[in-house]
Amino acid sequence: MVKAAADYGARRNRDLAIRQLTPDLLDDFLDFFDHAAFTDNPLWSGCYCMYYHFMGTEEEWEKRSASENRETVSKLIGEGKAHGLLAYANGRPVGWCHAAPRTAIPRLKLYQHKLFQQFRVEDPERVGSIVCFVIAKPYRGRGIARRLVDTACEVFTRQGLAFAEAYPRKKTESDADKYAGPLNMYLKARFSMFRELERYVIVRKALL
Predict the structure, then answer these.
(1) Quick one: which of 21, 2, 4 has its CA closest to 148?
(2) DSSP count for the chain of H helices, then E strands
(3) What is the rounded CA–CA span in Å between residue 16 and residue 86?
(4) What residues contact residue 27 under an 8 Å CB cut-off, 6+ apart?
(5) Which of 103, 101, 98, 72 is nearest to 84 (CA)?
(6) Average pLDDT, stretch 111-123?
(7) In the chain, which ranges are continuous DSSP H helix?
(8) Strand partners, 193
(9) For the chain, what is the domain count?
(10) Domain CATH code at residue 190
(11) How far apart are CA 122 and CA 173, in angstroms?
């Protein structure tokens, strides 16, 4: 499984490799989030990409500590329940994309039933979702996020999913606001508008 899924990016660029998250990459994931992910956005440094695994309220989320999120996501990765892609430059992790089958992302499953009904879709079992990115500041603007999108689509296709789906914000004023990826990037990657919401757009790309 690891070898079949690894190093998609290495085919395209000697200095960039993209690997699917597996339990043996836990140390790389933690190294990235401990030291590189949020150097210019310390307010978000305690997330450890736990938000979309969290099933509580926004108020309960705000009370969680960085150490709590770090411990919980480490357990999820060890159990194979956290999914995504790590981007490596010269052997070091420099980017992350949370991408997984929509039905494997707990908070999107919650949205199907309780919250944010505008995010509800009729075919979640056919969809792979791209929910967030973090690229280390020195490596932004180099096309790494786009490479992660392309690789996520490859992985979703291998998993037999019919659509890749993402949720970019309509208006962004900072790099942090682009955590879901900029709309223009998806349109260039041949995603199409699926649903327009007040602050977000749902975009999709047919895979099969």
Answers:
(1) 21
(2) 7, 7
(3) 10
(4) none
(5) 98
(6) 68
(7) 2-5, 26-35, 58-62, 66-78, 106-113, 144-158, 183-188
(8) 203
(9) 1
(10) 3.40.630.30
(11) 32
Residue 109: predicted pLDDT: 79
pLDDT in tens, 127-142: 999 999 999 999 999 9
Pair 28, 74: CB distance under 8 Å: no
Query: What DSSP character marks residue 91?
Result: T
Radius of gyration of the chain (CA): 16
The residue segments making up the domain with residue 168 are 2-206
Of the two residues 110 and 129, the one the predictor is more confident about is 129
**Long-range pairs for 25-29: beta carbons < 8 A, 24 or more residues apart:** 25/77, 25/86, 26/74, 26/77, 26/78, 28/86, 28/88, 28/93, 29/73, 29/77, 29/86, 29/93, 29/96
Q: What is the pLDDT of residues 4-62, one digit of tens each?
A: 344 443 344 458 999 999 999 999 999 999 999 999 999 999 999 999 999 988 899 99
Question: What integer pLDDT is reported at residue 204 of this predicted model?
Answer: 97
Query: Model pTM greater than 0.70?
Result: yes
How do strand 163-166 and strand 201-206 relate by DSSP bridges? antiparallel
| 8 Å CB contact between 205 and 189 | yes
